[in-house]
Amino acid sequence: MRLWIYIVRRLILLVPIIIGVMTITFALISAIPTQQRIESYYAPCRGHCYQPWEQYIPCPTNASATCTNPLWTKAIDQLGLNYPVPVQWAIYMENALTFHWGYTNNFSTVVSNYPVLRGEAVTTVLGWFLPYTLELAALSLIIIMVISLPLGNLSAVYRNRPVDQVSRIMSFSGYALPAFLLGTLLLYATIIVVGGPSQVSPICKGHFAALNDFWGSWPPVGCSNLYGTTNLGLDGYPTWLGGGFISSPTGFPTIDAALHGQWALAGDTLLRLVLPALVIAYGSIALLLRFVRNSMLEVMNLDFVRTARAKGLSEKVVTRRHAGRNSLNVTITVLGLTFAFFIGGFPIIESVFNLWGVGRLLAFSLEGSFDYGLIFGSTLLFTFLVVGANIIVDVLYAYLDPRVRLG
Amino acid sequence: MSATGTNGIAEEALPGEGPPGNSATVTASTRRRPNPRLDQFKRTWYFFRRNTLAMVGLGILVFFVAAFVYGLVFQGPTTQLNLYCATDGAPSQSTCPAGNISVCTYPQGTTSPGANCYQTPVIDGIPYNNFIPPTMTTTTLGPLPFGALIQSGQVGTPYFYNLYAGLVKGTDWSLSISVAIVLTGAISGLLIGVIAGFYGGVVDEVLMRLTDIFLSVPQILLVIVVILAGQEIGITGFDNRILLMVGAFIATWWPTYARIVRGQVLVVREQKYVEAARASGASGGRIVRKHVMPNSVYPVFVQMSLDVGTVPLLIAAIVYIGFPIFPNVLWPEWGSIAAESTLTLPDILQECAILGSGSACPFPWWQLLFPGMALFLFAISVNFVADGLRDALDPRLRR
């Protein structure tokens, strides 16, 4: 019962954080020129334009009063640009909280490269790409926990012995090695093991761009592979995903493939996630591993552990049941931090491994002429993910440690 | 480890812990006024010295500091840091950025338009203009001891420059930018954390919510968006953009320190010595300066030494995802060099595969190895030092 009160209190504390974060993004987005803001806020037309004036909003920034383009005035009105700053802020907050994050920019490089995105709402586009990121994040989290929890405990128990030194060097090198470098090296290593860059990969035979596509989320267009030839969609998404992968029931590629009964595809998708997830895990393990080790060391000095030993319990039971359980509390808090840390690395990992997640989308929208709608949209999305993860972590912490929720 | 530690203490008569003023052994000339700060430092150094990894890290750091000093006296772009700008057809110095040496490319099968021109291949009827195979850069474009870095940022004007010169210059950039960011971030975080922790109440609430807000935005994204916004409000030019980038990093950096320091201050302010100071009538400012701050600053040192190595990695990440921190400017900084060289690798390999000359077109390993080594060694050495510092400063961990 008290847990619910704690959760409610925690959610109330969330309000100033959300307001603050969005005030920062509002301040930053206010620096963008009006023309670009309107272009990224308002979609002139989706896919096909019926009127010539629909194609773009050709009014100069300072002549909005004499502007005859109805879209310009409409957009100015909707963004509240005629009102004082506090009102603009309120309108921005309302739009952001109701998920009206604007539209993709007709003139940005990413949209001209991928016409599928033309005129779509930013939230829709993010919704397409988010599941892939979530799958990758979940897999990386699992790998991080599977490696760092036992290894941290071991290095605390066998402190300053070889196990501890190995885990220390491993965590430090993971922290120090740039993810894109490690990813690229692994990619090339895989290609060299499988065959030369222009040679053969088991999934995509004889395709020249195998270099980039081998670990991509889906096989490239026209590429022969284990399950036939793919020929449509955003850089080779299978046809049953309907070009814009709209027909996918859940949006999660692995689950969708399984639902369609394409087990080979599901397995293949999962396989493509393993290497990037390993790279992410290797980079993020450092933080968690050190915290697990140190909190375990602290717990092992406490009285109840000594009592457990004095009772004559085996060392295994003492370290697992007594010390291990109690050192978990700190671990969970650090897990939230780790999540915030590695989600910032997603644009890099997804670019290296050619995965179609939100991070990749962000990287694309930073190419050539920027797509501000997508940039600020993915910033908001990542922020919400981090805040949400922290909430979950706090609640878990309170659930595991009664002192937190009662104190 | 612990056994040798105790032996070492017994043998070396740890400074500051021996019996003070033993008249039988200490003569009047060697007796000195006790200096607790110096003794503390000596004790920390004693424990730090016994940590092999930490000493290795310190050694690498000394090397980097030496490289930093060498980079200061190193002759700049005019002599050794050759920037090459390639154009199609005849070389024209006018279209190249200032300080670049103009070279040119011409399609296979046509005659060379002049000196400093390099043939580019035609495959399946498609001319591969603006591409100079990496072997040419190593063999013909001047002294390039570690091979060349090719930047493919701009179509039509790829730049080439000497990787060795770039990395030496990059030491200056990387180290000074990292130290500037981390130092400023740590100082502001320290002040905010001390104020929040010591005064508590509403001040604490407000400052900590502010910290939470800044911690919620992913670091790389905030830096990118701040640079974008700064660019739009007209912050242009190389120096201004560097300042903008440093400012953006600081904005994302202080919350970590504020949190650490606040947690530490919360513990320290309940200690007996703070109570004693208050009882003897010390003002709040004096307690903060003399008692709270010195006793809660050590974790900051550890975190600072950890963070110094992270800045070049973050810059590398930002450049890698394609965000032009410095559009059209070749910036010799480790992170950006590493990112650029990784980004150009697929192009080079694909061109090599098209050329079909495996032997003439080796895998440009130097492009990955040397910038990567610089980043990796710097980050890992500061990590070792931070770990040694933590063990030496925290009595519970050193034993």
Q: Which descriptors apply to this entry?
A:
heterodimer; A: 407 residues; mainly alpha; two-stranded antiparallel sheet; 17 helices; B: 399 residues; alpha/beta; MetI-like fold; five-stranded mixed β-sheet; two-stranded antiparallel ribbon; elongated; disordered N terminus
Would you write up a description of this structure?
The complex is a heterodimer of chains A (407) and B (399). Chain A has 407 residues and is mainly α. Helices cover 65% and strands 1% of the residues of chain A. Chain A is built from 17 helices and two strands. A two-stranded antiparallel sheet of chain A has the order 1-2. In chain A, helix 7 crosses helix 11 and helix 14 packs across helix 15. In chain A, 46% of the residues are buried. Chain B is α/β, with parallel strands linked by helices and 399 residues long. Chain B has a domain of 256 residues: MetI-like (MetI-like fold, Orthogonal Bundle). Chain B contains 15 helices and seven strands. In chain B, strands 3-2-1-7-6 form a five-stranded mixed β-sheet. Chain B has a two-stranded antiparallel sheet with strand order 4-5. In chain B, helix 5 packs antiparallel against helix 6 and helix 11 runs antiparallel to helix 14. The interface between A and B is large, with 62 and 53 residues.
Describe the structure concisely:
Chain A has 407 residues and is an all-alpha fold.
Helix content of chain B: 55-70%
Q: What proportion strand of chain A? A: under 5%
Query: What quaternary form is this?
Result: heterodimer
Low-confidence parts of chain B lasting 5 or more residues at pLDDT below 50? 1-24, 77-81, 126-159, 354-361
Mean pLDDT across every amino acid position of chain B: 72
The counted number of beta strands of chain A is 2
Fraction in beta strands of chain B: 5-15%
Query: What is the CATH topology assignment of the domain at 55-80 and 170-399 in chain B?
Result: MetI-like fold
Structural class from helices and strands of chain B?
alpha/beta
Low-confidence stretches of chain A: 195-247
CATH homologous superfamily name of the domain at 55-80 and 170-399 in chain B? MetI-like
Overall geometry of chain A comes to: globular
> Radius of gyration of chain B, rounded?
27 Å
**Helical region count of chain A?**
17
SSE arrangement of chain B, N to C: HHHEEEEEHEEHHHHHHHHHHH
State the strand order across the main sheet of chain A.
Answer: 1-2
CATH class of the domain at 55-80 and 170-399 in chain B: Mainly Alpha
| Gap from first CA to last CA of chain A | 14 Å
For the record, give the distance between the C-alpha atoms at the N and C termini of chain B, rounded to a whole number: 8 Å
Report the strand count of chain B: 7
What's the tally of helices of chain B?
A: 15
